[in-house]
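Case study: Ferredoxin.
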Amino acid sequence: MRVSVDQNLCYGSADCVFRVGSVFTTVDGFGAVVPGREDSGDDPRVREAAEQCPSQAISITEGREGTR
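Here is what the predicted structure looks like once written out:
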């Protein structure tokens, strides 16, 4: 499962970074996935971060990129 952050939705709370700093980081003040960690969607902490994201900017997709 792939995880991604929609830069158009994120407003920079960095809650994801505080929850799972090994997977999320900030770029120019907004959340982003650490390069190479895009396939971390199976991690329960990542799922929780997606569910708790205040701007709902984190997506977890199954299979190939762009499919749910």
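For the exam, be able to explain this: Helices lie at 15-19, 44-52.
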